[in-house]
Amino acid sequence: MKSNNPRKSLFATCILSIANFLLLIALCQLPVRVIAQENMHPSPQQKGSIALVGAIIHNGNGKVFKGNIKIEDGKIISITEGTSQNITADKIIDVTGKEIYRE
User: Fold this and answer.
1) Does the residue 70 lie in any domain?
2) CA–CA gap between residue 46 and residue 48 (Å, rounded)
3) How many CB atoms lie within 10 A of CB 13?
4) Which pLDDT score, from 0 to 100, does residue 62 have?
5) Is 31 a domain residue?
6) CB under 8 Å to 6, separation ≥6 — which residues?
7) pTM of the shown model
8) 18-41, pLDDT tens digit by residue?
């Protein structure tokens, strides 16, 4: 039976809204099961050398320049400013226009 009284209708709507809100809060309090990755393996150590050439490098002290980064056996061994004409490495990756930030 539908009520013609707008106050009762508004009251019922408010009660339902509050009930839905409380139900949502109760559901959010349920414990959440976190499933971690079972087979975590570190990646193999890098072998050889990689050169990132043409990068826009932000070195962390406010200096920004176009340059190159050379990595050997997983460690940065040099950061040079300028062009990449004399870069030698096992793998050369052109990152022209990409920005590299110091962590």
Assistant:
1) yes
2) 7
3) 10
4) 86
5) no
6) none
7) 0.56
8) 888 888 877 776 665 555 556 667
Q: Residue 93 pLDDT more than 90?
A: yes
Give the alpha-carbon dihedral of 14, 20, 26, 30, to 10 degrees: -170
Do the beta carbons of residue 99 and residue 55 sit within 8 Å? yes
Q: What is the residue range of 60's domain?
A: 49-101
Residue 59 has pLDDT above 70, yes or no: yes
The whole-angstrom separation of Cα 21 and Cα 94 is: 54
Tokens of 67: 């340059």
Q: What is the count of structural domains for the chain?
A: 1
Class of residue 51 by CB neighbours under 10 A (exposed 0-12, middle 13-18, buried 19+): buried
Burial code (b: 16+ CB inside 10 Å, e: under 16) for 52-68 equals bbbbebeeeeeeeeebb
> DSSP secondary structure string, 77-97?
EEEEES--TT---SEEEE-TT
CA 3 to chain centre: 54
Determine what percent of the chain is predicted with pLDDT higher than 70.
79
CATH classification at residue 60: 2.30.40.10
